[in-house]
Amino acid sequence: MRITGGELGGRRFQVPKGKGVRPTADRVREAVFSSLGDLKQGRVLDLYAGSGSLGLEAISRGAGEAFFIERAPESLKVLRANIEELELTDRTKVIRASVRQAVRRLGEAGERFNFVFLDPPYTSEEAEYALKDLVESGVLADGAAVVLESSRRREAPAVPGLTALEQRRYGDTMISRFIQVDLPKDDEPEGGGS
Question: pTM above the 0.85 mark?
Answer without folding.
Answer: yes
